[in-house]
Design goal:
Elements lengths: L9 H23 L3 H8 L10 H22 L6 H19 L3 H23 L3 H5 L2 H20 L1
Helix pairs in contact: 1-3, 1-4, 4-5, 5-7
Length: about 160
């Protein structure tokens, strides 16, 4: 038997389940704002030439939510969770503001705040696990890209 392997405790499994529910649950809330009418509205807008096809967003976000879960799980017992929760709430607020309310300026402002929350979360996680912080780099980069896409929609529509 490998002496380095230690099975996860029930508490760790529950923590992992909670993180999965929180991250993917917030993603499902955002996805619920993508109705047929909001997609019709979205496709009627002038979009950036760099806007990926619709299916890319679902794939990328699924990967990002997995990375967020893993990152938070690695530091959960020791790191502050404040920015973790702030970024989850910001994601949901962005989804509502962009898709449901169609307030593209305010949704851009929320993305700016989200970028700051992710940066602060990375700094906090880095104190305890470099890997945990590095796992969030794709998330940060995607949100910066999403901010560009959102700004383009605001400026040209």
């Amino acid at each position: 038997m490998n002496m380095l392997y230690k099975p996860m405790s029930l508490k760790s499994w529950l923590r992992l389940l909670l993180l999965i529910v929180l991250c993917f649950g917030s993603g499902l809330i955002v996805a619920s704002f993508n109705t047929a009418s909001t997609m019709t509205w979205y496709h009627s807008l002038y979009l950036s030439p760099l806007t990926p096809p619709d299916w890319v967003f679902a794939v990328v976000w699924s990967i990002l939510y997995g990375l967020i879960v893993l990152s938070a799980f690695l530091v959960w017992p020791v790191a502050s969770h404040r920015y973790f929760y702030f970024q989850l709430v910001s994601m949901v607020l962005w989804g509502y503001t962009f898709w449901e309310a169609r307030m593209t300026f305010w949704s851009f402002c929320i993305l700016v705040a989200l970028t700051l929350f992710i940066s602060e979360m990375m700094k906090e996680f880095y104190r305890y696990s470099k890997l945990s912080a590095y796992l969030l780099i794709p998330y940060l980069l995607w949100v910066v890209f999403a901010s560009y896409l959102n700004a383009y929609v605001f400026m040209y529509n």
